Amino acid sequence: MDVFKTVKELIVEELSVDEGQVTMEAKFIDDLGADSLNMVELMMAIEKAFESFNIEISDEEAAEMTTVGDVVKYIKEKIE
Amino acid sequence: MKRLEKKIAVITGSARGIGYGIAEHFAAEGAVPIIIDIQQELIDAAIEDLKHDGYTAYGYVADVSDFDQVGNVIKQIIKDHERIDILINNAGITRDSLLLRMKEDDWDKVLQVNVKGTFNFTQKVSRYMLKQKSGVIINIASVIGLMGNAGQSNYAASKGGMIAFSKSIAKELSSRNIRVNSIAPGFIETEMTATLPEQVVKQYQESIPLKRMGSVKDVAKLCIFLASDEASYITGQTINVDGGLVM
Ligand SMILES: NC(=O)c1ccc[n+]([C@@H]2O[C@H](COP(=O)([O-])OP(=O)(O)OC[C@H]3O[C@@H](n4cnc5c(N)ncnc54)[C@H](O)[C@@H]3O)[C@@H](O)[C@H]2O)c1
Q1: Which protein residue's CA is at the shortest distance from atom 38 of ligand 1?
Q2: CATH number, domain at A35?
Q3: What range defines the domain where residue A28 resides?
Q4: How many structural domains are present in chain A?
Q5: What would the pLDDT profile of A12-62 be if each residue is shown by its tens digit?
Q6: Tens digit of pLDDT for each residue in B8-37?
Q7: Among the options B58, B60, B155, B233, which is catalytic?
Q8: Which residues on A lie below 8 Å from B175 (Cβ)?
């Protein structure tokens, strides 16, 4: 499964940004204009999208994820 | 022009009393009230009465203090009605007793229904309001939550808790155009206050500057204002409807 593609779709939907902006290096707050509520919503959307892998992202873990790449790496580690 | 035209308004504990009054007045302003209460028969009777007056209303059974039940009911409401514009956390109970005689269960029940019930509904509904980028939440507290009352420490704690909860949520959700306010009614004539001894009622009335009990309509009218765009710059507030009891 293409984790990056799924995550990108969720980010485009949750943060109302263009697909092109969502690179692995993009920072949620600085580059994609997310605020703290957006981040909570995004984490909930990710948990739901990867429901079958039983991913539960704690607040501490979420706070560590500042770039799109961080999230993709986190999910890949969890589902492998 | 009606002030709440086509607004989907979820009102907890609205099969009777203040909640029913809010549902009725909301319907008259064009809103679609969604009645939430704990018993199907109570809901059916309320819907019947509203239909009889020519209004459209829907009902769902839920115990507000049950987290999972609330989650399921909100999912169902969204499925059926697609959005929720207004949430009124009105379901509430009392279990009066002096502190020394208060049973653990009296304390727990009141906090479970009044505070946890408010949390349950607010959390589940706010998800959809965030997506809509609009919404109004009104929590029905009480003047007791502001001034305290001998024999009602559990109720006072729950209502004070609701007020503080409202302010925090008002701050959390403000960036998404969601307003959260509390209403603190004084003594309102309903089933809840009908059980009070006549002597006590007289005493209360004496202490109220406007010298009378309030009506359900008094509370409902404030709800309409707070839920409408007329109150679009008001959030995080507690407004009393109490005949001047607390100033
Ligand atoms: N009546 C007053 O003088 C007064 C004053 C201040 C505040 N209030 C508050 O106004 C609200 C409404 O009061 P009321 O006088 O209309 O009371 P009421 O007892 O007449 O009505 C309360 C409704 O809530 C429902 N309910 C109770 N527990 C529930 C639960 N767990 N889940 C779902 N529904 C439940 C009941 O079935 C009932 O229909 C309450 O929160 C109360 O604390 C009332």
Answers
A1: B13
A2: 1.10.1200.10
A3: 3-79
A4: 1
A5: 999 999 999 999 999 999 999 999 999 999 999 999 999 999 999 998 999
A6: 999 999 999 999 999 999 999 999 999 999
A7: B155
A8: 35, 37
